[in-house]
Amino acid sequence: MGPLEGMKVLDLSHVMAGPTCALMLADMGADVVKVEKLPGGDDVRRQVPPRIGDEAASFLMMNRNKRGIALDLKAEGGRRVLERLVAGADVLVENFSPGTMERLGVGYERLAGINPALVYCSVTGFGRTGPDARRRGFDLVAQATSGIMSFTGEGPGRPPVKCGAPLTDITAGILAAMGVVAAYANRLRTGRGQVVDTSLFEAGIVHTYWQSAIAFATGVAPGAMGSAHPLSAPYQAFEAEDGWLVVGGANQANWLRLVDALEAPGLRDDPRFAENRDRIVNVAALEAELAPLFRRRKVADWLARLEEAGVPCAPVNDVLQMHAHPQAIARGMVTEVEHATLGRVRTIGTPVKFSRTPGGVRRGAPLLGQHTREVLREAEIGSLFEEGAVAEP
What we know:
Elements: E1 8-11, H1 17-27, E2 31-37, E3 51-52, E4 55-56, H2 57-62, E5 66-71, H3 76-87, E6 91-94, H4 100-103, H5 108-114, E7 119-124, H6 139-145, H7 167-190, E8 194-199, H8 200-205, H9 209-218, E9 235-239, E10 244-248, H10 252-262, H11 276-281, H12 283-294, H13 299-309, E11 313-315, H14 319-323, H15 326-330, E12 334-339, E13 343-348, H16 372-378, E14 390-391
Parallel strand pairs: 1-2, 1-6, 2-5, 6-7, 7-8
Antiparallel strand pairs: 3-4, 5-14, 9-10, 10-11, 12-13
């Protein structure tokens, strides 16, 4: 069932960053119980359209492989249930605004007193320390604050652009999962838990490695370059006769192969493009020389020629084309899972493969409170449904 089989995780998180962390752990075999708030559950349940049946498509994506219970943590009964579950858990993941868990009376100090071995993972907008610790964070805010939006876009004089994917949400979730596994490994040696603390802001910063290296070295903040690369050229998208493709002439050998494939021998001897450093300095001129050459053929023709020449290249796929890609299918990155009311639902597969302990997609996202009674029974907790502190469908 995966290398993390036996790990018990309580997922109190919502929307995307925390659920991504718990999703990664669940895909690797952990028993993840998603603890949703009452009333209403995770706000992603209301991020519609689109729906699949009566369920939000976004919720189905982010919460597969998890069991689900619903608790009112503002009620004494709900807090008692959580504390009982914490006593038998290995990991708790939350991404509430800073201070929320403490105000509810279930902050780390309280829960660590119940279970000193608990790995408590907190994903926030800006981290649990520092002058911005109390600021709420969203992907858009983190992409702007971390500098990503300053070098994403078409070029100088054009508006700043957010990366189309919720980059900092997803990356923060992956960093959190990495931190949880590291803290869990330490716990297996020492018997002691700890707080794992990461943020959307820091997740954005780690995507600036190249741009930060340039800024540290030059004192100049790199700007937007469209699809081009700040350290390699040509390494970007070009428009062909019938669509777009990307070309990676990222070293001298690939540059020379590209020149031959383009049937443009004059470029080989042009001093503006002799070495990579020259091409970087003259990247606008380089693009102006290459663009009309690429418009002479169709995407498929260029891909065949460039592949034969050994030049890294690819078509610019849309998401549906990616779903249909034979490699995505072969790697199990597009798969189906059984849902309690919807039947078979397509979803994205697990991105890390293990030779001896394969993980995978085992169950669909839960209905609100679907496994409440099952989880309470496992924890030997008496019925609290009458109090309204817990709920099931």
